Amino acid sequence: MKSMLVSKGGCILRIQSILNNLKSAEHRVANYILDHAELVTAQTMEELAVASDASYSTVDRLCRKLGYTGFREFKASLIYDVINNNNVGTIIQNLTVGQETSTQGIAENVYNLAFKVLEDSLAIMNISEIEMVVQQMIKAKKLCFIGAGSSGLCARYAYSRFFRIGLNCASDIDSTLYKMQAALLTEDDLLFVISSSGRTENVVEAARLAKKNGVTVVGLSDYAITPLSKTCDYNLYTTSRNANMFLNIDMPLITGQITIIDLLYMCTCVALGEDASRHYEKTITTANQEKTRNG
Protein backbone atom coordinates (compact mmCIF):
# COMPACT_ATOMS: atom_id res chain seq x y z
CA MET A 1 0.00 0.00 0.00
CA LYS A 2 1.33 3.42 -0.89
CA SER A 3 1.91 5.74 2.07
CA MET A 4 -0.51 8.64 2.31
CA LEU A 5 1.98 10.73 4.28
CA VAL A 6 4.98 12.76 3.30
CA SER A 7 7.89 10.45 4.20
CA LYS A 8 10.34 13.24 5.08
CA GLY A 9 10.68 13.38 8.87
CA GLY A 10 7.90 14.06 11.36
CA CYS A 11 8.33 10.73 13.14
CA ILE A 12 9.03 12.22 16.57
CA LEU A 13 6.06 14.56 16.22
CA ARG A 14 3.72 11.69 15.47
CA ILE A 15 4.94 9.63 18.41
CA GLN A 16 4.60 12.54 20.84
CA SER A 17 1.09 13.31 19.63
CA ILE A 18 -0.38 9.84 20.16
CA LEU A 19 1.77 8.75 23.11
CA ASN A 20 -0.94 9.12 25.75
CA ASN A 21 -3.42 7.12 23.68
CA LEU A 22 -1.28 4.03 23.12
CA LYS A 23 -1.72 0.64 24.75
CA SER A 24 0.89 -0.36 27.33
CA ALA A 25 3.14 -2.38 25.02
CA GLU A 26 2.95 0.21 22.23
CA HIS A 27 3.59 2.95 24.81
CA ARG A 28 6.71 1.11 25.92
CA VAL A 29 8.07 0.91 22.37
CA ALA A 30 7.22 4.56 21.71
CA ASN A 31 9.00 5.71 24.87
CA TYR A 32 12.04 3.64 23.96
CA ILE A 33 12.16 5.28 20.53
CA LEU A 34 11.90 8.77 22.01
CA ASP A 35 14.65 8.01 24.56
CA HIS A 36 16.98 6.21 22.13
CA ALA A 37 16.11 7.68 18.73
CA GLU A 38 19.67 7.62 17.40
CA LEU A 39 20.18 4.01 18.51
CA VAL A 40 16.88 2.90 16.91
CA THR A 41 18.01 4.22 13.51
CA ALA A 42 20.57 1.39 13.44
CA GLN A 43 18.27 -1.36 14.76
CA THR A 44 16.23 -3.96 12.94
CA MET A 45 12.58 -4.43 13.75
CA GLU A 46 13.41 -7.53 15.80
CA GLU A 47 16.13 -5.67 17.73
CA LEU A 48 13.75 -2.82 18.55
CA ALA A 49 11.15 -5.31 19.79
CA VAL A 50 13.66 -7.03 22.08
CA ALA A 51 15.17 -3.77 23.34
CA SER A 52 11.75 -2.36 24.24
CA ASP A 53 10.49 -5.63 25.75
CA ALA A 54 7.74 -5.93 23.17
CA SER A 55 6.77 -8.19 20.31
CA TYR A 56 7.44 -7.92 16.58
CA SER A 57 3.71 -7.42 15.96
CA THR A 58 3.57 -4.58 18.52
CA VAL A 59 6.34 -2.71 16.71
CA ASP A 60 4.59 -3.25 13.38
CA ARG A 61 1.26 -2.09 14.83
CA LEU A 62 2.86 1.06 16.22
CA CYS A 63 4.43 1.89 12.85
CA ARG A 64 1.02 1.65 11.20
CA LYS A 65 -0.67 3.71 13.93
CA LEU A 66 1.90 6.39 13.21
CA GLY A 67 0.76 6.39 9.59
CA TYR A 68 3.62 4.46 7.99
CA THR A 69 3.27 1.51 5.63
CA GLY A 70 5.77 -0.42 7.73
CA PHE A 71 9.03 -0.38 9.66
CA ARG A 72 11.16 0.68 6.71
CA GLU A 73 9.23 3.88 6.11
CA PHE A 74 9.08 4.56 9.85
CA LYS A 75 12.84 4.21 10.11
CA ALA A 76 13.52 6.48 7.13
CA SER A 77 11.41 9.18 8.76
CA LEU A 78 13.14 8.72 12.12
CA ILE A 79 16.59 8.94 10.51
CA TYR A 80 15.61 12.26 8.93
CA ASP A 81 14.51 13.55 12.35
CA VAL A 82 17.76 12.46 14.01
CA ILE A 83 19.95 14.03 11.33
CA ASN A 84 17.92 17.26 11.35
CA ASN A 85 17.43 17.42 15.06
CA ASN A 86 16.44 21.11 15.24
CA ASN A 87 12.95 21.16 16.75
CA VAL A 88 10.16 23.59 17.51
CA GLY A 89 10.87 23.46 21.25
CA THR A 90 14.48 24.55 20.82
CA ILE A 91 13.53 27.41 18.52
CA ILE A 92 10.81 28.57 20.94
CA GLN A 93 13.31 28.68 23.78
CA ASN A 94 15.50 30.92 21.61
CA LEU A 95 12.57 33.33 21.19
CA THR A 96 13.18 34.63 24.73
CA VAL A 97 14.12 38.26 24.20
CA GLY A 98 15.34 41.14 26.30
CA GLN A 99 16.17 44.78 25.75
CA GLU A 100 19.60 43.76 24.51
CA THR A 101 18.24 41.48 21.79
CA SER A 102 18.78 42.87 18.31
CA THR A 103 16.03 43.24 15.75
CA GLN A 104 18.08 40.98 13.46
CA GLY A 105 18.17 38.28 16.14
CA ILE A 106 14.44 38.51 16.79
CA ALA A 107 13.71 38.38 13.07
CA GLU A 108 15.82 35.27 12.58
CA ASN A 109 14.19 33.44 15.50
CA VAL A 110 10.64 34.35 14.50
CA TYR A 111 11.19 33.31 10.89
CA ASN A 112 13.01 30.12 11.90
CA LEU A 113 10.04 29.18 14.07
CA ALA A 114 7.56 29.85 11.26
CA PHE A 115 9.65 27.78 8.83
CA LYS A 116 9.90 24.90 11.32
CA VAL A 117 6.17 24.88 12.04
CA LEU A 118 5.46 24.65 8.31
CA GLU A 119 8.12 21.97 7.81
CA ASP A 120 6.62 19.88 10.62
CA SER A 121 3.12 20.38 9.24
CA LEU A 122 4.23 19.18 5.80
CA ALA A 123 6.02 16.19 7.32
CA ILE A 124 2.82 14.88 8.95
CA MET A 125 0.51 15.82 6.09
CA ASN A 126 -1.85 13.22 4.69
CA ILE A 127 -2.08 14.14 1.00
CA SER A 128 -4.96 11.76 0.39
CA GLU A 129 -6.94 13.47 3.17
CA ILE A 130 -6.31 16.87 1.57
CA GLU A 131 -7.60 15.60 -1.78
CA MET A 132 -10.72 14.08 -0.20
CA VAL A 133 -11.50 17.26 1.74
CA VAL A 134 -11.22 19.33 -1.46
CA GLN A 135 -13.72 17.05 -3.20
CA GLN A 136 -16.10 17.23 -0.24
CA MET A 137 -15.90 21.03 -0.19
CA ILE A 138 -16.64 21.27 -3.89
CA LYS A 139 -19.70 19.05 -3.75
CA ALA A 140 -21.16 20.59 -0.55
CA LYS A 141 -24.19 22.80 -1.00
CA LYS A 142 -22.98 24.99 1.84
CA LEU A 143 -19.64 25.40 3.65
CA CYS A 144 -19.65 26.68 7.21
CA PHE A 145 -16.34 27.71 8.80
CA ILE A 146 -16.21 28.05 12.58
CA GLY A 147 -13.59 28.57 15.27
CA ALA A 148 -12.94 30.33 18.57
CA GLY A 149 -10.27 32.87 19.48
CA SER A 150 -7.38 33.02 17.02
CA SER A 151 -8.81 29.95 15.29
CA GLY A 152 -11.97 32.00 14.71
CA LEU A 153 -9.86 34.53 12.80
CA CYS A 154 -8.58 31.70 10.62
CA ALA A 155 -12.16 30.54 10.05
CA ARG A 156 -13.03 34.02 8.85
CA TYR A 157 -9.97 34.00 6.60
CA ALA A 158 -11.08 30.68 5.08
CA TYR A 159 -14.52 32.13 4.41
CA SER A 160 -12.96 35.17 2.68
CA ARG A 161 -11.01 32.87 0.37
CA PHE A 162 -13.61 30.32 -0.65
CA PHE A 163 -16.66 32.49 -1.22
CA ARG A 164 -14.68 34.42 -3.85
CA ILE A 165 -14.44 31.34 -6.09
CA GLY A 166 -18.16 30.69 -6.10
CA LEU A 167 -18.65 28.35 -3.14
CA ASN A 168 -21.66 28.97 -0.90
CA CYS A 169 -19.99 29.87 2.41
CA ALA A 170 -20.86 31.05 5.90
CA SER A 171 -18.69 31.82 8.90
CA ASP A 172 -19.17 32.73 12.54
CA ILE A 173 -17.02 33.09 15.65
CA ASP A 174 -19.89 33.63 18.10
CA SER A 175 -20.41 30.30 19.87
CA THR A 176 -24.21 30.60 20.12
CA LEU A 177 -24.55 31.52 16.45
CA TYR A 178 -22.21 28.84 15.11
CA LYS A 179 -23.91 26.14 17.17
CA MET A 180 -27.23 27.29 15.69
CA GLN A 181 -25.64 27.18 12.22
CA ALA A 182 -24.36 23.66 12.87
CA ALA A 183 -27.79 22.50 14.01
CA LEU A 184 -29.37 23.76 10.77
CA LEU A 185 -26.88 22.17 8.37
CA THR A 186 -27.96 19.11 6.39
CA GLU A 187 -26.25 16.03 5.00
CA ASP A 188 -25.55 17.98 1.80
CA ASP A 189 -23.46 20.56 3.70
CA LEU A 190 -19.98 20.65 5.21
CA LEU A 191 -18.86 22.05 8.56
CA PHE A 192 -15.19 23.10 8.75
CA VAL A 193 -14.10 23.34 12.38
CA ILE A 194 -10.83 25.04 13.38
CA SER A 195 -9.47 24.51 16.89
CA SER A 196 -5.79 24.36 17.81
CA SER A 197 -6.30 22.18 20.86
CA GLY A 198 -9.21 20.20 19.43
CA ARG A 199 -10.79 20.50 22.88
CA THR A 200 -12.63 23.83 22.82
CA GLU A 201 -15.99 22.81 24.22
CA ASN A 202 -18.25 24.97 22.06
CA VAL A 203 -16.66 24.04 18.72
CA VAL A 204 -16.61 20.33 19.63
CA GLU A 205 -20.29 20.57 20.57
CA ALA A 206 -21.03 22.26 17.23
CA ALA A 207 -19.23 19.43 15.41
CA ARG A 208 -21.28 16.85 17.29
CA LEU A 209 -24.54 18.68 16.52
CA ALA A 210 -23.67 18.68 12.83
CA LYS A 211 -22.73 15.00 12.88
CA LYS A 212 -26.18 14.15 14.26
CA ASN A 213 -27.65 15.67 11.10
CA GLY A 214 -25.36 13.65 8.83
CA VAL A 215 -23.22 16.68 7.97
CA THR A 216 -19.67 16.06 6.73
CA VAL A 217 -17.33 17.52 9.37
CA VAL A 218 -13.71 18.53 8.71
CA GLY A 219 -11.39 19.42 11.57
CA LEU A 220 -8.23 21.53 11.46
CA SER A 221 -6.19 21.26 14.66
CA ASP A 222 -2.84 20.36 16.13
CA TYR A 223 -1.60 16.83 15.49
CA ALA A 224 -3.15 14.90 18.36
CA ILE A 225 -6.04 12.59 19.25
CA THR A 226 -8.69 14.90 20.69
CA PRO A 227 -12.49 15.09 21.17
CA LEU A 228 -12.65 17.03 17.89
CA SER A 229 -10.53 14.57 15.89
CA LYS A 230 -12.70 11.70 17.16
CA THR A 231 -15.82 13.52 15.96
CA CYS A 232 -14.69 14.61 12.48
CA ASP A 233 -14.96 12.67 9.23
CA TYR A 234 -11.69 14.20 8.03
CA ASN A 235 -8.81 15.60 10.05
CA LEU A 236 -6.14 18.06 8.92
CA TYR A 237 -3.24 18.95 11.19
CA THR A 238 -0.80 21.78 11.77
CA THR A 239 1.97 20.72 14.14
CA SER A 240 2.17 18.70 17.32
CA ARG A 241 0.31 19.96 20.38
CA ASN A 242 3.20 18.60 22.48
CA ALA A 243 5.68 20.74 20.56
CA ASN A 244 3.76 23.89 21.43
CA MET A 245 2.45 23.06 24.90
CA PHE A 246 4.71 25.58 26.65
CA LEU A 247 4.28 28.27 24.01
CA ASN A 248 2.03 31.15 25.07
CA ILE A 249 1.83 32.93 21.73
CA ASP A 250 -0.51 31.96 18.90
CA MET A 251 1.75 32.74 15.93
CA PRO A 252 2.88 29.16 15.17
CA LEU A 253 -0.67 27.84 15.32
CA ILE A 254 -2.01 30.56 13.03
CA THR A 255 0.90 30.08 10.61
CA GLY A 256 0.06 26.40 10.19
CA GLN A 257 -3.69 26.95 9.95
CA ILE A 258 -3.49 29.72 7.36
CA THR A 259 -1.08 27.70 5.21
CA ILE A 260 -3.35 24.65 5.17
CA ILE A 261 -6.33 26.86 4.29
CA ASP A 262 -4.31 28.33 1.42
CA LEU A 263 -3.37 24.82 0.28
CA LEU A 264 -7.02 23.76 0.22
CA TYR A 265 -7.94 26.98 -1.59
CA MET A 266 -5.33 26.48 -4.32
CA CYS A 267 -6.29 22.82 -4.80
CA THR A 268 -9.95 23.82 -5.03
CA CYS A 269 -9.13 26.48 -7.63
CA VAL A 270 -7.32 23.86 -9.73
CA ALA A 271 -10.23 21.43 -9.39
CA LEU A 272 -12.83 24.06 -10.36
CA GLY A 273 -10.74 25.43 -13.22
CA GLU A 274 -12.34 28.25 -15.21
CA ASP A 275 -15.36 28.40 -12.91
CA ALA A 276 -13.12 29.51 -10.05
CA SER A 277 -11.39 32.09 -12.25
CA ARG A 278 -14.68 33.51 -13.48
CA HIS A 279 -16.10 33.96 -9.98
CA TYR A 280 -12.83 35.41 -8.68
CA GLU A 281 -12.71 37.98 -11.48
CA LYS A 282 -16.23 39.11 -10.58
CA THR A 283 -15.20 39.77 -6.99
CA ILE A 284 -12.05 41.59 -8.13
CA THR A 285 -14.10 43.83 -10.44
CA THR A 286 -16.57 44.64 -7.67
CA ALA A 287 -13.77 45.35 -5.17
CA ASN A 288 -12.00 47.65 -7.63
CA GLN A 289 -15.20 49.57 -8.37
CA GLU A 290 -15.72 50.08 -4.64
CA LYS A 291 -12.16 51.36 -4.24
CA THR A 292 -12.67 53.78 -7.12
CA ARG A 293 -15.87 55.17 -5.56
CA ASN A 294 -14.21 55.58 -2.17
CA GLY A 295 -10.92 56.74 -3.72
UniProtKB/TrEMBL annotation:
Keyword match DNA-binding: yes
Organism, scientific name: Cohnella rhizosphaerae
Residues covered by the SIS domain: 133-274
Keyword DNA-binding in annotation: yes
Protein name as annotated: MurR/RpiR family transcriptional regulator
Residue ranges constituting the HTH rpiR-type domain according to the UniProt record: 9-85
Database matches in Gene3D superfamilies: Glucose-6-phosphate isomerase like protein, domain 1 (3.40.50.10490), Winged helix-like DNA-binding domain superfamily/Winged helix DNA-binding domain (1.10.10.10)
Biological processes annotated in GO: carbohydrate derivative metabolic process
Keywords: DNA-binding, Transcription, Transcription regulation
GO MF, one example: DNA binding
CDD domains listed in its UniProt record: SIS_RpiR
Pfam families referenced in this protein's UniProt entry, alphabetically: HTH_6, SIS
SUPFAM superfamilies per the UniProt record, alphabetical: Homeodomain-like (SSF46689), SIS domain (SSF53697)
PROSITE patterns found in the cross-reference section: HTH_RPIR, SIS
